[in-house]
Design brief:
With 303 residues, the protein is α+β, with helices and mostly antiparallel strands. 11% of the residues lie in helices and 25% in strands. The strands form two sheets. A seven-stranded antiparallel sheet has the order 6-5-2-3-4-8-7, with no helix packed on it. The structure holds 4-(aminomethyl)benzoic acid. The site of 4-(aminomethyl)benzoic acid (4AZ) has 11 residues, from strand 13.
Amino acid sequence: MKLQVFIHVTTILLWHFMDYATAFPYPATCGNRPLASHEFGSRIVGGKDALPGTWPWLVSIQQPIDEETFIHMCGGSILNTRWILTAAHCLKDQANYVYSWRLVFGGNQLSTFGPEMQICGISKKIVHENYDSRTECNDIALLSVDRPISYNKHIQPACLPRKTSDVTLMTDCYIAGWGVLEEEATEPSDILQEARVEMISNKRCNSTAWYNGAVGIYNLCAGYDAGGIDSCQGDSGGPLMCKEPKAKIFSVVGLTSWGSGCAQARSPGIYTSTQYFLNWILDKIEYNPTNKKHEDMISSHLG
Ligand code: 4AZ
């Protein structure tokens, strides 16, 4: 009897440690950054080159301009092996052209294609039913890939914020993208840019000298009062990523949506809140935490 108990306990302990060992160094199902250093000295417009692998859920959405050339259009975030989250305005007026577009994963410098990178096509697009291009209300969309993404150190799924977390209190926020480096520029950046931004309350953002009421409850506002650092054209659809002060893992709390110019004073970037649209996202990707098939889907980070 005692031996049986001993064996039982040992087996449970072994399982526990084996589980831990196989999970390490990827203890979570999302938000892992195997290549990112733990230092955030960091410091788009006013950003700096991101090191390869810093934001492994970032996607470059590209449009063909001729037989063999594609150009970066918008950013996106990997939710799981099948779904990408982006902004609706990246896809508006595109009818079925998106099916000739491509998605590039694991990229840092877009002009060079490394072995860590993956490319795939789009098999389905879901634009929010109530997207309004005049107000940019409901600026959110999903793209499904034509073959499953396989994760590596440069390609990992993003976390979304818990329903219960107060994203407006998150102090450690970054934007990243291949968008233009200056408001007047026409070419996207070849190297992924990142910048630290401050969360600004919607109330402040909506004040008269700022956006005068145009920012909705479904938006987040991030940047600087004085401008200088901001997202810009081509960063759209890409992530605003924040973590709670002591947390290790970043969540994609916003999608780059719009702004008055780029990096102008009192005109910070406006982002679609992923927390506001969490039920919409989970419903569309048919997220079901008890379904084994969905194990790689979003995460333990959902409240
Ligand atoms: C754009 O045109 C755009 N400064 C994206 C972000 C911002 C402005 C414009 C925010 O896609």
